[in-house]
From TrEMBL:
One Pfam assignment: SprB
Record keyword Signal present: yes
Lineage of origin: Bacteria, Pseudomonadati, Bacteroidota, Flavobacteriia, Flavobacteriales
Organism from which the protein derives: Brumimicrobium glaciale
Extent of the signal sequence: 1-24
Keyword set, alphabetical order: Signal
Protein name listed in UniProt: T9SS type B sorting domain-containing protein
Cross-referenced InterPro entries: Ig-like_fold (IPR013783), PKD_dom_sf (IPR035986), SprB_repeat (IPR025667), T9SS_type_B (IPR026341)
The keyword Signal appears for this protein: yes
Length: 901
């Protein structure tokens, strides 16, 4: 059975050959071939019900998974039991980042995108890689476009589970990725098929992983070159095969042919090998009339794959239209004797053949004898059952009267002969010629050119007048039957061959510019040669023959003089013209060979290099040559001028690009040692802010030729550090009654200058390290500012508040003598800082009896009871309750006072 290169992998069909039959409709399943008689109708059916080709698989009505960026799907049923690293699963999760995991506890969770800290597998750094089949674990984003779908197809025990990522862009990109994962029941194989995998180095480092890893991160099998690296893939197929179907503890990776998996929205149609297209018609194609010869019919399916179309072609049914034909010959009857015959001869078809002669008693042989005059039909059927027929007419000729002549050998001669016969000879035959000699024999001789008649008569009654024309031998005709130009310019292998007809052989030949003496000359040069022919009768004929030659070699196209970057390679090319055999290109520099072929790449070692080409050809015609010059551009020496080189950080520096060159600068790349980089067009200035430290700049100038020139400027910029201002104040807060404080600087050792600003104090400025300030007797917060400066002129400022607050003070005498002598006769408490409206003094004797009370802070006790009686000598307890005049805080003081008399 004929097969196409796109053999259907999934529709198993047996080989079936159908016999040709006449005109009844034949049916056949797609993939089987059939031979029928031409004109028979044929119906081809897609008995398998779907088209799965060697280059694509079509999933009918797959389930679409709606995934947001960096997410796992809900739990998905695989549809069969699948063993992965020694554990059997029936469910999985589909991740938005090109990974399928068997850890279903992560359902609807986050499928992390970052691979920067994952490292090379196997390891346990990234939970997303554990117990997972990584088709292409990378940061793709189904939320930005494309679709993700899955389906289980086939029947047990050979089902297959498909997950397809169709037309998915990378995160933060407009590219397109198309890839599919397949799990196989029974074998527990895993296949990855990537139609297109892009690379976005600007995100996630462009990293991606392809492979499998167990649940502990201790075992993994990774596609070489795809272990958390940057990689691309196009029409790529990978197989991950366990040690055996029952031992899935380890896997082996091999490359396999790539397939593209399409959804059921793909378009089906019929097509044949003649380029004709037909509608799908639910998988049935009706061919109303099989054409003669062989035509293949097959199904096609197409679907979208990123920005292009992907197609698959099914197996092919070849329909062969067979024909048969027959011809018939006859031998006429003679004189109605019934001795004619007819013979049928097959001209097409295959044996065995059967024949039927309806008009000859239904004879069934190819030849029928003893046939009388008439028209007869023969019907023939070949081994394919294809029928054909033809007619043959049998005449009734009493006899045939053939004639023959011998022409006159030379014009004007009389050596011709003429013969007349009767075949078969029936009875006695007589001859009568009308030539000048009235000859009566079957052959008349000595005839000149002309027309002669001979009456042939048989004794049985048949007669015929035979007319014979005696001709002269025609003059020789010279015909050029073969003419071949010189194969190589300036060569001598031209060929001319002539054919002489008529005249009288043998012929004698002569060629100008050649050694040949036959009808063929094969050593001719470019130009005109003359051939002369003489026959046996000395007749002469000549002919001029023009022999051409190929045009001379020339170099039609060649690389122009060019300028390239230092160290770059350049493509040199040339296109030869003329000649007649394969070209030979030899390139050289300083007479030293550098390459062969119409295209070479060279890397000049100097500023000006001349490359020369010698063009020749295999047949060794004259050579052609030319040269081309390759030179370097004018030197470019990157240079810059900063507007400053040092300042207290952050330091903003403007760099002027002072590169002096005649080349056109396309852009400049500024790379700073702090890890930052700027790319600016042309030679424009650039501004960059530096932090603390010493920094260098790498400058790369790129010209419009693509040439790159680099120069480093180390330790060019310094960001000076700042000093650290620190101090404390003692006392703080200070009493309103003693508003003096000392400030102590605790600033760093790099401080060279100290400045104090004390608002409301005396002095209000100081430049010593630990100054003392005196404030007014006012309750208030006063700002104290310290400004320090280091050797770079960098300053730091620190402000703190100095608090002057109220203080309640009390002075109480412990003895007085109320004896009326005018000395120490009363007892009075001295108290400051209180609210005089909230004051209470109480005095008690030793039995707890109150003997005196006053609400006046300036009140005095004369040693008497409230009624004026003198108290006894001894010790008395006093208690004072008062409020702070600033904030109404409550105070209670107590003590004793002794009365002496």
């Amino acid at each position: 059975m004929l097969e196409t290169m796109f053999k259907n992998l999934f529709i198993a069909i047996s080989v079936l050959f159908a016999s040709a039959s006449a005109m009844s409709q034949q049916t056949v399943c797609l993939g089987n071939d059939i031979s029928v008689c031409a004109g028979t109708s044929v119906q081809i059916s897609n008995c398998g019900g779907s088209v799965i080709g060697g280059t694509a698989i079509v999933l009918q009505n797959p389930t679409t998974v709606s995934l947001s960026d960096d997410s796992w799907s809900s739990v998905v049923n695989i549809g069969f039991s699948f063993s992965f690293y020694g554990t059997t699963y029936t469910q999985c999760l589909i991740g938005s980042n090109g990974v399928v995991t068997f850890n279903t506890s992560s359902a609807n969770g986050s499928n992390g995108w970052s691979l920067g800290g994952t490292g090379q597998l196997p390891n346990g750094n990234n939970n997303n890689t554990k117990n997972s089949a990584m088709l292409c674990y990378s940061d793709i984003n189904p939320a930005s476009g494309g679709s993700v779908f899955y389906k289980t197809i086939g029947t047990a025990p050979n089902r297959e589970f498909y997950v397809v990522y169709a037309n998915i862009p990378m995160f933060s990109a407009q590219d397109c990725n198309y890839m599919a994962l397949i799990l196989f029941e029974g074998s527990n194989n895993i296949e990855y098929h990537i139609s297109n995998k892009t690379l976005n180095t600007g995100w996630n480092g462009g990293l991606a992983i392809q492979g499998v890893q167990n649940n502990t991160g201790t075992a993994a099998t990774i596609t070489p070159g795809r272990n958390n690296t940057q990689w691309l893939a196009l029409n790529d197929g990978q197989l991950f095969q366990p040690t055996s179907p029952t031992n899935t503890a380890a896997y082996v990776n091999t490359v396999i042919p790539s397939k593209t998996v399409l959804s059921g929205s793909a378009t089906f149609g019929w097509q044949n090998t003649n380029g004709q297209n037909f509608p799908y018609n639910n998988g049935t194609l009706n061919i109303p009339s099989a054409a003669t010869g062989t035509v293949g019919y097959f199904l096609t399916v197409t679907g979208s794959n990123c920005t292009s179309q992907v197609g698959a072609v099914s197996d092919t049914t070849f329909v062969t239209g067979l024909t048969s034909s027959v011809s018939a010959s006859k031998v006429d009857d003679m004189c109605s004797a019934g001795i004619g015959s007819v013979t049928a001869t097959p001209t097409s078809g295959i044996a065995p053949y059967t024949f039927l002669w309806p008009g000859l008693g239904n004879a069934t042989t190819a030849t029928v004898n003893n046939v009388s005059a008439g028209t007869y039909t023969v019907q023939m059927t070949d081994g394919n059952g294809c029928s054909s027929s033809t007619n043959v007419a049998v005449g009734d000729t009493p006899a045939t009267f053939p004639s023959s002549v011998t022409p006159v050998s030379c014009p004007g001669g009389a050596d011709g002969t003429a013969t007349a016969e009767m075949l078969p000879v029936l009875g006695n035959v007589t001859y009568s010629w009308n030539d000048p000699n009235n000859q009566t024999t079957s052959t008349a001789t000595g005839l000149a050119a002309g027309t002669y008649e001979c009456l042939v008569t048989s004794s049985i009654g048949c007669s015929e007048t035979v007319v014979v024309i005696v001709s002269e031998i025609p003059e020789m005709i010279l015909q050029v039957v073969n003419q071949v130009d010189v194969t190589c310019n300036s060569g001598n292998d031209g060929i001319a061959e002539i054919l002489i007809t008529d005249g009288t052989a043998p012929y004698f030949y002569s060629w100008t510019g050649s050694n040949s003496n036959t009808e063929l000359s094969d050593d001719l040069s470019f130009g005109v040669t003359t051939v002369t022919v003489l026959d046996a009768k000395a007749c002469v004929v000549t002919e001029d023959i023009s022999i051409g030659q190929p045009t001379a070699l020339s170099i039609a196209q060649m690389s122009q003089d060019t300028v390239i970057c230092i160290g770059d390679s350049v493509r040199l090319y040339a296109q030869g013209a003329g000649g007649s055999s394969p070209y030979i290109y030899n390139w050289s520099k300083n007479n030293q060979g550098v390459g062969n072929g119409s295209e070479i790449y060279v890397t000049p070692s100097g500023p000006l290099t001349e490359y020369c080409l010698v063009l020749s050809e295999q047949c060794s015609s004259p050579m052609a040559d030319a040269c081309v010059t390759v030179k370097y551009p004018d030197e470019v020496n990157p240079s810059l001028v900063p507007d400053k080189t040092g300042e207290c950080f952050p330091i903003e520096v403007t760099f002027d690009n002072t590169t002096n060159t005649t080349e056109i600068v396309s852009y400049t790349i500024w790379t700073y040692s702090d890890g930052e980089k700027d790319t600016v067009p042309g030679e424009n200035p650039v501004v960059h802010e530096f932090g603390e430290g010493i920094f260098g700049i790498d400058m790369e100038v790129v010209t419009n030729r693509g040439c790159s020139y680099k120069k480093s400027f180390p330790n060019l910029i310094e960001g000076f550090p700042y000093p650290e201002a620190s101090f404390y104040v003692n006392p703080n807060p200070a009493s309103i009654f003693e508003p003096k404080v000392t400030a102590y600087s605790q600033s760093g050792s790099d401080v060279l200058s100290t400045k104090w600003f004390a608002e409301g104090a005396k002095p209000d400025y100081s430049s010593i390290q630990n100054p003392t300030f005196k404030y007014s007797n006012e309750i208030q917060n006063y700002p104290l500012i310290l400004v320090v400066e280091n050797g770079y002129g960098c300053t730091d400022t620190l402000q703190k508040l100095v608090r002057i607050e109220n203080e309640v003070l009390i002075f109480s005498p412990n003895t007085f003598t109320p004896d009326g002598d005018g000395l120490n006769d009363t007892w009075k408490v001295q108290i400051q800082g209180i609210d005089i409206q909230n004051f209470q003094l109480e005095i008690f004797n030793r039995w707890g009896e109150k003997v005196f009370e006053s609400l006046d802070p300036d009140g005095e006790w004369a040693g008497t009871y409230g009624d004026g009686r003198i108290v006894k000598e001894g010790a008395y307890v006093w208690i004072i309750k008062a409020h702070d005049f600033e904030n109404d805080n409550k105070y209670e003081f107590n003590g004793t006072v002794t009365i002496l008399k």
